[in-house]
Amino acid sequence: MLLTFGAATSAAVGARAGEAADLLDGFAAADCSDEGPAWVLYLDIGGEAGSVACGRERRGGLRASADSRFLIASVSKLYLAVALMQLNEAGHLDIDDPAARWLPAGLVEKLGGLLDGVSIANLLTMTSGLPDYLDDAYSQSSIADARAGIAGRDILIKAVTGIAEEPRLFEPGASFDYSNTNYLLAQLVLEKAAGAPMYEVFEDRIFRPAGLTGTRLLGYGIGPAGFVQGFEDFGKGLEPVDAYLTGYGFGDGGLVTTAAEVSGFYKALFEYGVLLSDDSLERLLMDPSGEGYGMGIEIESLAGVGEVLGHSGGDTGFSADIRYVPEHGVTVVYLSALAEDDLSVTWELLEELP
């Protein structure tokens, strides 16, 4: 178990940081197994950051630490939404453009009427009505394709065309359905408008300005050996998932990073103003469906705390959650190398804060 806290800059903040340290320490004492799958819990209160880490980065390897990197799955969606809003600010596209205008002609033809009336904003707010491409069959075929040397973009397009024969769930803008297909298409839009692959756009427009030196997209400079080993029970007990992560990260959830850098991204976006203008942030946080979802971000509230922004994520062998309270400058991040882990700890911490 690792517990670290910076020096308090004021008596009030120091008291809160000390109380949070006790809270984190108690959580570790109850749930920490130094030989199990890694997890990190990170808490920042007004700039006073602390963390607790547990487990091993890999079986028989180093103990997990605050610097351990995890796959953060759908927590990645906000990064793509921010990059597209940056292109909107720069005039490279209009966020309300028809998505088909920015997609490969062959893909648009294959999807037919599924894309009629679907805007880029519909993709980002999960209001397109497009069915989800992600299922067990896709997971197996994508692994085989990656091992065969098929390019990541081709695997992505194959995944999206897999929904071509499925009906649309509703007319664009009429309702909400959480579909990962939206963010694969959003990635293609981004790459067309920016004239560069997504991992380069992220590096230039998000990672470098926000100071995220340890954040990478899976398959582009980082593979399973470069972050903690995830575990999942496929019916015979927990087993490592490295073999399932030999492919590429896509726009729906492929980033690898640390808990501190997830927090740093949220602070750069919502506190420091280095990624988007106030007008763009306002649009990002609009909830057109009334389902508590903006553009790649969940918008909720907690009694006694106020508005809570964030996102959860789950992938083969990994779970993740971030909750950010803009009114108080509080960020809680939980990253786990265990599939379908309990993510309620982020909310439990928020409820305990003074």
Automatic annotation (TrEMBL):
It comes from Roseibium sediminicola. Gene3D superfamilies: DD-peptidase/beta-lactamase superfamily (3.40.710.10). This is Beta-lactamase family protein. Residues 43-340 form the Beta-lactamase-related domain. It comes from the Bacteria. It holds the Pfam family Beta-lactamase. InterPro entries: AmpC-like, Beta-lactam-related, Beta-lactam/transpept-like.
